[in-house]
Amino acid sequence: MALPKMARVRQHFDTPVLTDLHAAIHTELDRIETKAIINPGETVAITAGSRGVANIAIAVKAIVDYLKKIEAKPFIVPAMGSHGGATAEGQRTVLEHYGITEKTVGAPVKSSMDVVKLGTLPQAGTDDLPVYMDKCAAEADHIVPLNRIKAHTDFNGSIESGLMKMMVIGLGKQQGANYYHRAFFQFGFEHVITAVGGFILDTGKIAFGVGLIENAHEDTAKVVAIPANQLLQTERELLVQSKSMMGKLPFDELDLLIVDWAGKNISGTGMDTNVIGRMMQNFEPEPLKPAILRIFVRDLTEESDGNATGIGLADFTTTRLVEQIDRHATYMNGITALGPQKSKVPFYYDTDQEAIEVALNTIGLTKPENARVIRIESTLRLTELDISESLLKDAQLHSNLEVVGELQPFEFDVNENLLPFATETH
Fold first, then answer.
1. What is the rounded CA–CA span in Å between residue 16 and residue 3?
2. Is 350 inside a domain boundary?
3. How far apart are CA 268 and CA 266, in angstroms?
């Protein structure tokens, strides 16, 4: 089959970068007068999640260092719902992947799947909503949620992925995460997160939150410490800022998107649904753009530990990816989130070349060599990408695109798999 020729392009995003996150966090904690919130000797649970948040270990250590300086007693709790196979050791291992251990951050990591019930929220015409919380966090004098604030992969709202979701889903562990995802079907994502999160805020357990915003280059662009009584409104404002910095594909209509890497460290759904234009979420409308006819995912990140949640968003994948799937971790994640449809195994082939040829055979009357194709390293890395010849003229007219490579055929190794996606930055 004649395949399209591809050229490397670079996207230019006008986004800020925070060069000293450790110092910036200390400045923020001074600004909100943390000494007046937390007293010497008090215990503080700091949340750490399972997403691939940039510089997360630095951020955790910065908070730990500050709290120790004011003579508080910080410790870390994994706040990741059912991730890590819904086991305490699995969640501890996830944090170790991100460089978060007692040795690296200077505070104990207390990992447990046990939860306590803080109370219930009455709901009209149905059962009350229980409010669950990680037992270790609930026993602390204070809790400090730390998370990246960004667009969610399952829904759109004024509150999406961030501190409120960390408090509700992350600290709810498997029991809470599963219950709240069920409640989403009845009440909607945003209502459940704001209602349960509001209840948690009203308990007085939250000392303050630390929100991170990333730019399109996957670098930390901003950090904000937020007093508990301002958390909900401030997170709404930061979400707007975050969305304005998001990376995205430069074209809205494609025949084929090739994604080298999917995984839990990249997105909760393996690939960012805001980038690929597919959610497959019950009771939520599909995005109108981008409109991508076929998606081929080549491999699963090592950091995913076999959790292939979201692979069902693709149409095609490889045998090597399928053989890495940990069914327990993937199924547990899909069941907890009530999204089994997102993790169905796509058509899979032994080689990249075969998968690409089959994919291009399913795009209608367009000849494969004329197909609109983009290849990316992952949905987190959109600065450099390869585009097909049919997109090249549009790219040359695009104000934020720079063509940096010549047109050339796909390069396969002796096993008919694509050569690694090499970039200047990674």
1. 38
2. yes
3. 7
Q: Could you report the per-residue pLDDT of 139-196, keeping only the tens digit for each? A: 999 999 999 999 888 888 899 999 999 999 999 999 999 899 888 888 888 999 999 9
- Judge contact between 58 and 98, C-beta under 8 A: no
> Tokens in use for 262?
């999917």
In single-letter form, the type of residue at position 338 comes to L
Any domain includes 65: yes
Going by C-beta distance under 8 Å and a sequence separation of 6 or more, which residues neighbour residue 277? Answer: 286, 287, 288, 289, 290, 291, 292
One domain, residues 194 and 294: no
CA distances (Å), origin 270, targets 243, 279, 309:
19, 11, 6
- Using CA atoms, how far residue 233 sits from 189, 193, 236, in Å, is 17, 14, 5
Q: Do 55 and 109 belong to one domain?
A: yes
Q: What per-residue confidence (pLDDT) applies to 82?
A: 83
Domain end residue (candidates: 221, 245, 269): 245
For the chain, the domain total comes to 2
**Which has the closest alpha carbon to 278: 308, 267, 307, 302?**
267
Q: From residue 185, give the alpha-carbon distance in Å to each of 8, 159, 189, 339.
A: 43, 17, 8, 11
Nearest partner of 275 among 297, 263, 292, 300, judged by Cα: 292
Return the DSSP state at 127: P
Q: How far apart are CA 199 and CA 242, in angstroms?
A: 25
Peptide bond into 285 cis (omega under 30): no
Percent of residues, the chain, with pLDDT higher than 70: 98
SS3 category, 414: coil
Residue 269: domain span: 6-14+248-403
Place of tokens 């509001």: 198
Q: Tell me the C-alpha distance between 67 and 335, whole Å.
A: 37
